Amino acid sequence: MRQPSRHILSATLAACMLALAGCATPGAPVALETRSTQQLLEASTDADWRTPDPANLLYMDLDGGRVVIELAPAFAPEHVANIRTLARGGFWDGLSLYRSQDNFVVQFGDITEEGVPGRPIGSARASLPAEFDRAAADLAFHALPDADGWAARVGFVDGFPAARDDRRGNGRAWLAHCYGTLGAGRDMAPDSSNGTELYVVTGQSPRQLDRNITTVGRVLQGMELLSVLPRGTGPLGFYEDPSLRTPIRRIRLASDVPVGERTPLQVLRTDTPLFDAVVESRRNRRDDWYVQPAGHIDLCNISVPVRTPPSS
Questions:
Q1: What residue stretches are annotated with the PPIase cyclophilin-type domain (predicted)?
Q2: Does 169 have pLDDT greater than 90?
Q3: Which of 8, 82, 147, 212 is paired with 190 by a 20 to 30 Å CA distance?
Q4: Is 206 in a helix, a strand, or coil?
Q5: CA–CA distance, 264 with 236 (Å, rounded to integer)
Q6: What is the mean pLDDT of the segment spanning 152-176?
Q7: In what order do the strands lie in the sheet with 153-157?
């Protein structure tokens, strides 16, 4: 494991080579230019941003606004395919967010009493294999230098916080349970999820769930609509009073929404020198308020910036 001082030096040298921070001559003390995350983003170019595929975006429309979710077919292809089918069939339209557990998750789907048939799922599949992790060989894994308590390596894959384990030679990778992660609820059997019951992490990152539940995406915009929901008073945060549930107007794929009704968004690419500099600006805060740089950052403390395209 690298020591924190080496984390700082490595990131600093990389930033120097890329002219994203002040540099010193070899052997001399390193003098860093104070450059905030906002300043780095303001200096970004169009090449530093990507536009998500509308076929991988879910729009959850609530009375309070829209939650935009990016799906991750590279990690859970069968679940994502089923979620697309469910969305096209209007499965969640008129259902609700029926659980809000403090410092944990909100959950939505078709909650019914025991013995009462649930809503038909149309042409979607009722049973799917567990997709807790996948082979890492063909993923563009952009690793962080920071140590992690839950995995041998952590970093990002196409904007998604991810973890990787090569220690046993099997090269497996998975989406991490960070704030905003979307997962597929399951029962006791590992293969008991099919995407009809979904949850979003709204509390401290429950990384103990990694590789135990299929994770299928993350929220890009609208987390404030989920994180402020009143907490359920029943066990595990379920609402005992059905009137407290938050109704879902509808959930659609962005690709099925007329272009004029879509939410224009761009996401900062996580495989660029600029992103490395943004992470370093959060790892070691150098603005005047901070007395001591941390020298470390947790994977789930890195929020990937999202913006409205400048031309919109």
A1: 65-253
A2: no
A3: 147
A4: coil
A5: 35
A6: 93
A7: 134-135, 172-175, 160-165, 153-157, 142-143
Tokens of 13: 């040298």
Sheet holding 49-50, edge to edge: 49-50, 266-268, 306-307
Give the residue, 167 or 98, on which the prediction is more confident: 98
CA angle, 259 then 76 then 207, to 5°: 110
- Alpha-carbon span 95 to 68, nearest angstrom: 17
Domain ranges of the chain: 4-47+269-307, 54-264
Residue 116: half-sphere exposure toward Cβ, Cα within 13 Å? 6
Closest CA to 280 of 3, 1, 10: 10
The answer to whether 121 touches 89, Cβ cutoff 8 Å, is: yes
What are the tokens at 79?
């679940």
CA distance 90 to 85: 9
Report residue 246 as tokens: 């938050």
Q: How is residue 124 written in tokens?
A: 């979607």
- Kindly state which CATH superfamily the domain 54-264 is placed in: Cyclophilin-like (2.40.100.10)
C-alpha distances in Å from residue 171, one per residue of 90, 138, 139, 153, 281: 37, 10, 10, 11, 30
Quote the CA–CA distance of 10 and 14 in Å, as a whole number. Answer: 6
Does the pLDDT at position 9 exceed 80? no
To the nearest whole percent, how much of the chain has pLDDT over 90?
81
Q: State the helix-helix crossing angle for 4-17 and 273-283, rounded to 10 degrees.
A: 140
